[in-house]
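STRUCTURE:
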């Protein structure tokens, strides 16, 4: 297991250890210019719960990391806000950027296989957006209503959300394998590499997103449901 960051670590060291943390940190409204300030100091300045922030960061860099049980005290609205910020990042930046790189790759090649790869990606995009809309329209309002009103909606629980989790990250892996194994070698190397790198980063981010939902959001909401059940 990799090292675990704590409140005493310098914020700059987090980024220097893994540049993929930059968009994660941005979702908390935290931007560069850290000087030598610690995680705790920066979180205090930006009014971010340091325990939740560290749980997200450590979950991202350590797939086996298990957040401390003390997270039950983290406001659920903070967790939902982070997940919504992540959705916006996917819709506003990641998906358009991957499409831009795919179009460059298609334009650089005469390979007929790219038409199949494009169709695979566009079908995947539809599934991704449907998944995000389901969370935004059904799951998050259910969670916030549960917390604010202390009332359960009949015939629904957070465990139903767990069952609805899709294999979005696995399909990105399938797409990368499809390209690596079957793409005809009539393409621009740099465009193809950039496209594959972008797919890999998105796949990693989706895995992190799912872990946060499964390991942080679901246990906290399930505990509230149990309390309301008496």
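SEQUENCE:
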């Amino acid at each position: 297991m990799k090292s675990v960051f704590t409140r005493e670590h310098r914020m700059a060291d987090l980024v220097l250890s893994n540049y993929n943390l930059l968009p994660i940190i941005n979702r908390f409204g935290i931007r560069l210019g850290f000087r030598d300030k610690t995680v705790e100091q920066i979180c205090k300045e930006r009014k971010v719960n340091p325990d939740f922030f560290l749980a997200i960061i450590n979950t991202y860099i350590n797939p086996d990391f298990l957040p401390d049980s003390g997270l039950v005290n983290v406001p659920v609205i903070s967790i939902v806000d982070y997940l919504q910020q992540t959705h916006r990042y996917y819709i506003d930046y990641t998906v358009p950027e991957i499409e831009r790189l795919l179009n460059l790759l298609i334009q650089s090649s005469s390979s007929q296989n790219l038409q199949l790869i494009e169709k695979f990606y566009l079908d995947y995009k539809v599934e991704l957006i449907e998944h995000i809309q389901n969370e935004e329209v059904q799951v998050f309002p259910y969670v916030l209503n549960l917390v604010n009103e202390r009332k359960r909606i009949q015939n629904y629980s957070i465990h139903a959300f767990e069952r609805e989790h899709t294999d979005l990250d696995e399909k990105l892996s399938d797409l990368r394998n499809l390209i690596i194994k079957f793409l005809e070698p009539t393409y621009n190397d740099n465009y193809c590499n950039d496209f594959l790198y972008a797919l890999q980063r998105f796949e990693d981010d989706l895995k992190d997103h799912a872990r946060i939902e499964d390991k942080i959001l679901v246990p906290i909401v399930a505990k509230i449901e149990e309390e309301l059940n008496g």
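REMARK: The CA atoms of residues 117 and 175 lie 7 Å apart.
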